[in-house]
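Re: duplicated header lines in exported structure tokens

Our pipeline writes sequence and tokens for each protein into one text file. With two proteins the header for the second block appears twice in some exports. Here is an export where it did not happen, for reference. First protein block:
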Amino acid sequence: MTQREVTDQDNLTWTCVQAYAGLEGKAAEKATELSETDEGTVTVVCTPSGQAQTVRLQLPTDWLDETTDEELVHEIEQAR
């Protein structure tokens, strides 16, 4: 499962992973297909290292490679 970690200005480390990323094979393909919106986004779940609540984000399908750490932190802050 591919994930990313970012740290916000409150020194919380957030671990972000695409929903259904732990599935394999045909199940993973079907889950990814179903989770992608018509706008080309997928659900990403970000879990904090501290007391804050987990957040769910809608990010572009290429978020792992194309979304900067700063953009990811900004999206998390907006969702809190």
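Second protein block, exported in the same file:
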Amino acid sequence: MAHFGFENDIHSILKLDMPITNAPMARWQRKASSSNTSALSGLSPGKSANVSLSSSKTPSKTPGKNKKQTPSKMGGDRFIPTRNSKQMDVASFLLTKENEPVDTSNTAGSSESQKAWSMSLNGYNIEDAKILHLGGQPLNAPEGYQNNLKVLYSQATTPASVQKTRYISSTPDRIMDAPELRNDFYLNLLDWSSRNVLAVALHNSVYLWDASRGDITLLMKLEHEEDYICSLSWTKEGSYLAIGTSDCKVQLWDVENQKRLRSMGSHTARIGSLSWNDHLLSSGSRSGHIHHHDVRVAEHHIATITGHSQEVCGLKWSPDGRYLASGGNDNLVCVWPRVQEGNASNQSVRCWSEHQGAVKALAWCPWQPNILASGGGTSDRHVRIWNVNSGSCISSLDTQSQISSLVFAPNYKELVSAHGYAHNNVVIWKYPSLTRVAELNGHEDRVLSLTLSPDFSSIATVAGDETIRLWKSFEVDPVKKKAKERMVKSTSSVINQSIR
């Protein structure tokens, strides 16, 4: 009942049809009292009190209406319950300045600085302290404000609470046929070079698609029909392509001249994963062994790592070249140190066994070199984020689907996952919160591999439905892109001048 009584009191005050106790004297009352000082001085105290308190009757003519009055000393002339004293002072200050000439030479440039100063000094934007708002729409309430009376603020959604999101197309930008693609979860059959060339392995052949010109080239084909390609990996410069085969060989190809440079044999089983670290090529085999190859020397096989008991299906060097991450069919994720002086340590830096399925999906974070993401197979379905320095699992997410590939997208700081059973789709996650941003559906079979374009704006996926789909999901705003390019040019010019 007290609540209803309070609202009735508020309504009665707002109607202004009854005296308001303890309120400042109205302006017309102050002017009337000042003009009639001599007349009031002769009255008795009781009568003078009656004159000052006769606010229930509205005067027939407002005093001073025909005279233009400029407020000389401002003060609150009415009661506004939602204004604090600081805002009233600021509003009074604004009213005293309204007749001053405005400097229009730098109005646009100074508006943002004035807003910043106001937020710093007052704790709120000075524009929000205006008593009157004569625009077409009412002022929006601060975010999260609830006004039961609905008399001062609009209840429309505030701009601050509306997230500006980019448009992500749910349909692929391009679809290409991939006939005779081997539908094997443990193989890595797709890779995109820094020179914008996409390599895909179709059974025993490797095809190249130039994304800039649209040309398709047959690079190589194995001699024996029963053999097949198991893995692909471009060098950082994009000039050479390493190819792992089912006949236990690693072939190195000069793509520009379409010439095989060498064939390196050291494994005893098929080679399902490859990863480059400058001149060092690491290969993972079905035997569980990882071999390091120095491609500059004749005796290429320089070290062997025997940390996995089953097939090594995931292999990734960190961006800074310090660590090699490996995932296997034994559900292990291991991190190995860099090869030094021709010897590789067989002792892992980290080894995690939290996954309950085969770990093929591995991805290092480009902007946090000590962060590794891993994804489990059908029995696990979890994406796990690891801190290599501390050895802890930062976060874990159940995707409800087999994870075949992971990649970080730097343009928007997101993580992209490719899935097999049961969803057969691609999901974009915000990092590090791992909240779902978008789903890319279209493949009719499990997605086997996922790779990122060199400009980080697109991803390519290959699936068991024998199609390759390109998705432009990470294009940068043109204005921000130009600003970034200008920044890169300016820094490069400074570096060149320092070198000279």
